[in-house]
């Protein structure tokens, strides 16, 4: 698919960023949401890149494919002729690429691996690893070919909320500490991109107390560091249950008998307890949803997938994200 055949702007006027950073507390499904967002943004003949940086090969597992190499490759097609490519960024490979790009070491740079120089470099300068990872993401986001962007959007499956501020801010810290040279220039360029309107950091959560609290804390941290927060994405939401009058055990027993079902005491008490638990759960979810709304950011709710997250489920989530735009 040639670049001239693809639309110039990302899908959806409400998803205007070019780099979409997806974070969330562990267990909220942030990787699934990142994959679905890449599908959504590729709809209609666009091309997106889905990137992971934690070495978990989560993208390969989601799409039931071989482990991703340090190379951009076709992952899946999107509705309307779009394409999603994927990349697993490896810090060691990124360092070798960096050395070749800026210092022209070529094969000599790769020989450093035999002497453990790469492990040494990332050990004495821990932030260097994240600089290399975000630097590769920045390069893909801004890359052009024939005068056009290679990718309409890049989606980064980023570290969880507990580490996202430090991960994104390391380039600014490195630029501040480095006096001159390619590392300073590279860090400044990445830091500028991450704080520009080209970037949006989306936070994935569940309607549960700990994920919502981490979401609130992460948004406060990201805002204080100057990163543009995009949307709060509430994953795995259940259809709303209309509020109604409390049904007494006597009414439950009467209804069960009318339906020709067992109405013994254990059955009735079990159903009454379940109804009570559901009412408490609904009240808690409503309260947590209010807490999220009060953050005054766009809110997207994605449905619970009873059968788990497979390719069909990813397309369901992608469709919901498209509708949200």
Explain what the structure shows.
- There is one protein chain.
- This protein is of the alpha/beta class and 325 residues long.
- The chain has a single domain, classed as P-loop containing nucleotide triphosphate hydrolases (Rossmann fold, 3-Layer(aba) Sandwich), CATH 3.40.50.300.
- The protein is built from twelve helices and ten strands.
- It has helices spanning 30-42, 58-62, 91-103, 107-111, 117-124, 127-142, 161-177, 182-194, 209-225, 249-258, 265-293, 311-324, and strands spanning 19-24, 47-52, 73-78, 82-88, 144-145, 148-149, 153-157, 199-205, 229-237, 299-303.
- The strands form two sheets. Strands 3-4-2-7-1-8-9-10 form an eight-stranded mixed sheet, sandwiched between helices. The protein has a two-stranded antiparallel ribbon with strand order 5-6.
- α1 crosses α12 (311-324) and α7 crosses α8 (182-194).
- The model is unreliable at 1-13 (pLDDT under 50).
The secondary-structure element order is EHEHEEHHHHEEEHHEHEHHEH
Low-pLDDT windows of residues: 1-13
Under CATH at level 1, the class stands as Alpha Beta
CATH fold annotation: Rossmann fold
How much is the radius of gyration in Å?
24 Å
Tally the helices: what do you get? 12
Global outline: elongated
Query: What is the residue-averaged pLDDT?
Result: 85
Instruction: Compute the separation of the termini in Å.
Output: 25 Å
Largest sheet: 8 strands, mixed
Structural class: alpha/beta
Fraction of residues in β-strands? 15-25%
Beta-strand segment tally: 10
Largest sheet, order of strands side by side? Answer: 3-4-2-7-1-8-9-10
In total, how many domains does the architecture comprise? Answer: 1
* Secondary-structure arrangement, i.e. CATH architecture: 3-Layer(aba) Sandwich
Helix content: 40-55%
* CATH homology superfamily name: P-loop containing nucleotide triphosphate hydrolases
